[in-house]
Amino acid sequence: MSQLRVGHGGTLDVEASGVLLIGINRGCKHLDKFLKGGKTYLANNCLGVTTDSRDAEGHILNLSNTKHVTHEMLDGVLPRFVGSIQQTPPVFSAIKMGGKRLYEYARKGQSAPEEIKARTVLVDQITVTHFENPGHETSGRRVALPRGVSEYFAQGRYVWDGGDMRVGEEMMSNVNDPRLAKFQMFVRSGGGVYVRSLVHDLGMAVGCGATMLSLVRVSQGPLRLGRDTIDAEDLPYIDRKV
């Protein structure tokens, strides 16, 4: 039985979904052709919460009041994060340091062996498509997530238990708490951008912190979700060249 050589371009977070470029055998040599042209993302986020991983997989570090935050306020800080910016990668990342991935240290509760240095990355566009601060303001138009994605984040370990959030507990079971102030944003960027770090920094800029709840990569280079992609669960049934 011959062995397959498989590679991928553009790592996605564990809980993220969307376009992921896969190369098989000779296709691995052509991955770079499809990695040019940037990437686009749709991120759903909450305000007033920060976690150690900067997304819903992590444990809650801090809880803050969000009554003062408005859609206009968020829009007002966006220009700080567009263009060529300095961004510090999260400790829960695949960056190698001391022979290990950073997330290997983080999952064991260990500090990185050296300071995680900021990197220069390119963010072309950020648009807040929808904003909701319960009891205060709702504005914009929410972009619907793919059906399978929205169903995934509405069940299982994402089901809200009706309780209050506490520092130190997992964020995952609080994702669907209806009392959370939330915003959705569209991002167009170059490679190497951590959207969850972008969300965290936006939250800090408006004085309350923020956490990314879900992420969909809408496009990568010329490849667009839905138009040019195959669902992973359908791969065993594909008998044609694509």
Polypeptide structure, described:
- The mean pLDDT is 88.
- By secondary structure, this protein is an alpha+beta fold.
- The protein has helices at 31-34, 71-77, 102-107, 147-152, 195-205; strands spanning 6-9, 17-18, 21-24, 39-47, 49-51, 60-63, 83-87, 96-97, 100-101, 119-133, 137-140, 182-189, 210-220, 223-224.
- Strand 10 and strand 11 (137-140) form a beta hairpin.
- Strands 2, 4, 7, 10, 11, 12, 13 and 14 form an eight-stranded mixed β-sheet that branches. The protein has a two-stranded antiparallel sheet with strand order 1-3.
| Beta-strand residue fraction | 25-35%
The H/E string reads: EEEHEEEHEEEHEEHEHEE
Shape by Cα distribution: globular
The count of helical stretches stands at: 5
Radius of gyration: 19 Å
Secondary structural class: alpha+beta
Quick one: how many beta strands? Answer: 14
Low-confidence stretches: none
Main sheet summary: 8 strands, mixed
Which bin fits the share of residues in helices? 10-25%
- What is the end-to-end distance? 23 Å
Mean pLDDT: 88
Give me some keywords for this one.
8-stranded mixed sheet; 242 residues; alpha+beta
Secondary-structure topology with pairs:
Blueprint: E1 6-9, E2 17-18, E3 21-24, H1 31-34, E4 39-47, E5 49-51, E6 60-63, H2 71-77, E7 83-87, E8 96-97, E9 100-101, H3 102-107, E10 119-133, E11 137-140, H4 147-152, E12 182-189, H5 195-205, E13 210-220, E14 223-224
Parallel strand pairs: 2-13
Antiparallel strand pairs: 1-3, 4-12, 4-13, 5-6, 7-10, 8-9, 10-11, 10-12, 13-14
